[in-house]
Amino acid sequence: MEATGEGRGNGDEINAACAVQLPSGEQSDEAEERSKAEAEGYVRAASVAEVKAAPSRKWKCLQVEKRSVTFFHQDDHIYALDSWCYHNGGGLMRGDIEDFGGRLAVRCPLHSYRIALETGEGLYMGMIGGVKSKGVKQRVHPVKIIGDHVYIKISKPKQTNTPEVQSDCYQFIRG
């Protein structure tokens, strides 16, 4: 199964794998790696070139297993989040990527809510002590690079034993 779509380019147990560094040209047994990833529930979403075709700090939006997922890339990392903001369903694919207190975040275009790309945490600037977390609010999805392709594992709460997050309700309304 492959993802489709176009664009311009949870729990702690799933967040650790939700940002992946692009390969540095090392070759591995791709068929074996691909087979293992597919057995773990990963599906091929796009080519690395397709995701990187968007300028840095921009996005690519795709439909993966009937879920709208937005891929962001910054330098040598790719992140995948649900496309609709947890707060009020704003399209994150239109949001700006920014450094927010040392954390890479997407800013929702509707109400300027900031979401950490790596963890899905809602972020805000505290009165004292800098950036604070509201906890995980946005569904993030683990990604892997195998050969020249980006693979994604859609994080589904009931199947992965992870808690529901606020962005889940908008995904099924809008997605």
From TrEMBL:
It holds the Pfam family Rieske_4. Residues 45-152 form the Rieske domain. Its cofactor is [2Fe-2S] cluster. The keyword Iron applies. The keyword Secreted does not apply. Coiled coil: none annotated. InterPro entries: Rieske_2Fe-2S (IPR017941), Rieske_2Fe-2S_sf (IPR036922), Sol_Rieske_ferrdox_dom (IPR054716). Transmembrane segments: none annotated. One of its GO terms (molecular function) is 2 iron, 2 sulfur cluster binding. Keywords: 2Fe-2S, Iron, Iron-sulfur, Metal-binding. It comes from the Eukaryota. This is 2fe2s domain containing protein. The lineage of its organism: Eukaryota, Amoebozoa, Discosea, Longamoebia, Centramoebida.
